[in-house]
Design a protein that fits this description.
The protein is an alpha/beta fold. Helix content is 38%, strand content 13%. It contains 15 helices and 11 strands. An 11-stranded mixed β-sheet has the order 1-3-2-4-6-5-10-11-9-7-8, with helices on both faces. Strand 10 and strand 11 form a beta hairpin. Helix 2 runs antiparallel to helix 3 and helix 9 crosses helix 11. The model has no long low-confidence stretch (mean pLDDT 97). The chain binds glutamine. The site of glutamine has 13 residues, from loops.
């Protein structure tokens, strides 16, 4: 019998509505687990135990009074610290926001609360979501439960690690260039980046708005589909929100890929891809073939340019978005704030931001400045259009596109952090989905020397159904996702 903290969201809900466990017991079990492993993992920046217990009691009261409860009743949910939570510290893992307590909830938080989900804490991340390893956090790195000296991926590293260690049942991540899928792959869990506009970003602290999405991270595909069902939907407070009719994504979870046409772009297996990852992913593709799908190797030539394009767009938007942190209205302020406005502004930002954030603000400002705008930013936008067109063509022929999530297995903490370009290279397979606004999911696809490998499945805009069906079928016919780290 699995212990309460080991359950999925679906199982937790069942237990609670069948009166086999109370919401309080479920939440307490998760906190017991957190207190046991958290010192070694560092998944969380903030824990909200008191509030969570109070919330769980409310759910139990509803049940004892015979009132209906929401689909996430008693489910412990961790939230990336880039998402605003009313009256709860929201730091973006930055010194700049280390005291920031938002006066309002992000739309996704409102949706979770409406379904009786229990918010248990805020998770560690790369500072302002800039990174792929959770090493740029002001609060120290998160460790990968599959290899404690290794990174959990990033930037939603805390959200992935807490799912892998059963320190939460569900988690929210954000994905600007891979930050849900990368850590999902490195921690052997499921992470889904929705179509651009499907999930409201109201209340998300912006890094690069034209790329990012909030999305679900979970122990299996069913939970991911369930969570997406709750998160997705139109929100008039987000100008980029797509007006779609509500959909139950769990309904597309059929264990069948017969007739599915899979495209495998050769650009996803470029020079930087490790042989071990390549082997596992091809094993995954052949598994799907065995289950009734057909695949074809193809080429999306513009993918070669996706990394450079992504970093120009992301840094440019970041330089503009982060200009608001002046230390005056809110944010970190130096103790000795002497001198004119520009001096104080510069001092606050120098001390408030870490090295990677400052690097990106400087590079982004450079790419947007007169004389360089046409050469870099505008050029990147044009290539972005070509990348989108390449995918549009591909999806006329294929239902899904499959490849590795990450080109190599989780690396050692400290191994790449001094070499930003080497770190940027790890995003080579994830950024194109963001540039094109496409949905993509990472599912466990085996191990190499004990370290997880994730397979990425992409689909056309708003075809989360196809992507989830393929991911579900793969999961049901393999046992990679059932393995737990020894920790
Ligand atoms: N690693 C990428 C970056 O540093 C993606 C980050 C993200 O998706 N937030 O920008």
């Amino acid at each position: 019998m699995p212990k309460l903290h080991e359950l999925t969201a679906q199982e937790t809900y069942q237990k609670i509505v069948n009166n086999e466990a109370s919401a309080l017991e479920c939440v307490q079990a998760v906190f017991e687990r957190i207190h046991k492993v958290e010192d070694n993992i560092n998944s969380y920046v903030t824990l909200t135990e008191k509030e969570a217990i109070a919330q769980a009691k409310k759910v139990d009261n509803k049940i004892s009074e015979g009132k209906p409860v929401g689909k996430l009743a008693g489910v412990s949910i961790a939230v990336k610290d880039a998402i605003c939570t009313k009256d709860i510290l929201t730091t973006c893992s930055s010194r700049m926001l280390k005291n920031f307590v938002p006066p309002y909830d992000a739309e996704v938080i409102k949706r979770i609360k409406k379904e009786d989900g229990i918010l248990i804490g805020k998770t560690n991340m790369d500072e302002f979501a800039m990174g792929s390893s959770t090493e740029t956090s002001y609060f120290g790195p998160t460790h990968n439960p599959w290899g404690m000296s290794r990174v959990p991926g990033g930037s939603s590293g805390g959200s992935a690690a807490c799912i892998a260690t059963d320190e939460a049942i569900l988690a929210l991540g954000t994905d600007t260039g891979g930050s849900i899928r990368c850590p999902a792959s490195y921690c052997s869990i499921v992470g889904l980046k929705p179509t651009y506009g499907l999930v409201s970003r109201y209340g998300l602290i912006a890094y690069a708005n034209s790329l990012e999405q909030i999305g679900p991270m979970a122990k299996n595909v069913y939970d991911c589909a369930l969570f997406l069902t709750i998160l997705a939907g139109h929100d008039s407070k987000d100008a980029t929100s797509v007006n779609t009719s509500p959909k139950d994504y769990t309904e597309c979870l059929k264990n069948n890929v017969e007739g599915f046409k899979i495209g495998v772009p050769k650009e996803f297996f470029g020079g930087g891809t490790s042989k071990a990852v390549e082997r596992q992913i091809w094993g995954g593709i052949h598994k799907l073939e065995e289950l009734g799908a057909t695949y074809e190797e193809t080429s999306l030539p513009t993918l070669e340019e996706s990394l450079a394009t992504y970093y120009i767009v992301a840094m440019s938007e970041a330089s503009s978005n982060l200009a608001r942190y002046d230390g005056l209205r809110y944010g970190y302020r130096v103790e000795k704030d002497e001198g004119d406005w520009a001096t104080v502004y510069a001092q606050d930002r120098k001390e408030g931001f870490g090295a990677e954030v400052r690097r990106r603000i400087i590079l982004g400002t450079y790419a947007l400045s007169t004389g360089y705008y046409n050469k870099y930013y505008l050029k990147a936008l044009k290539i972005r259009t070509l990348i989108r067109k390449d995918f549009e063509e591909a999806f006329k022929k294929f239902d899904i596109i499959v490849g590795p999530t990450m080109p190599f297995p989780p690396f050692k903490i400290g191994e790449k952090i001094e070499d930003p370009l080497a770190l940027y290279m790890s995003d080579v397979d994830t950024v194109s989905a963001n540039l094109a606004g496409l949905p993509a999911i990472s599912v466990p696809c085996g191990f190499t020397e004990g370290l997880p490998v994730g397979m990425q499945i992409m689909a056309s805009h708003l075809r989360e159904d196809l992507m989830l069906q393929a991911a579900y079928t793969f999961e049901q016919n393999t046992d990679y996702g059932n393995k737990k780290p020894a920790h």
